[in-house]
Amino acid sequence: MYQKKRDKRSIQSSDWIYEALKQLMTEKDYSQITITEIVNTANIGRTTFYRNFDSIDDVLRLRCLDAFSHFRAYCIDYYLLNPLESRTFLKPFLRYWYEHSEIIELLVKAHRENIIKECLAAEVDFFIQSSTIKENEIICTHLNYFIEMRIANCMSILTEWIKNGKDIPPDTLAEIIELQVKESYKFTLFI
């Protein structure tokens, strides 16, 4: 686990460690990177690494959690500015990650999509708890399945989009997905 300290020195050390890991990921496969290489690249002591993190995954996890924290704030602002779109999640989701995808790209490259899923699950849960969806008895009867379905859909869309170099503008992709979902109800689906 990471040690989320907010003093200036810890924040700076965490940033150096992240930047060193990011640089190393351009040079070699994530699975081949060692803590020794990270501390040497960051020009810090091993103790500094372990004061902030327990593992290399934790470096990415902390950065991902921070990004999702910013995403939440972005969504709150988005819904305040666009109250008629308060029931949509995909459009602000894609808009945010279009501009802030560095950590997602690194996690996909490192084959650590599970970290994205952990962070996304917390955000989906937050949005569901703060939405009117709780009033829908059909969904709420087995809310855990609804949440997992939403997470799986968002994860699949996001990771495929990242793998394709964000080749479709976010609003266009959101519209395409909405149309596909509407059209899919016309056919028998294998689930």
UniProtKB/TrEMBL annotation:
Q: Which residues bind DNA?
A: 34-53
Q: This protein's superkingdom?
A: Bacteria
Tell me what this protein is called: TetR/AcrR family transcriptional regulator
Question: Which residues does the UniProt record annotate as the domain HTH tetR-type?
Answer: 11-71
Source species of the chain: Holtiella tumoricola
Name the UniProt key words of this record, in alphabetical order: DNA-binding
Select a single GO molecular function from the record's annotations and give it.
DNA binding
Q: Source organism lineage?
A: Bacteria, Bacillati, Bacillota, Clostridia, Lachnospirales
The record's PROSITE patterns line, in alphabetical order, gives: HTH_TETR_2
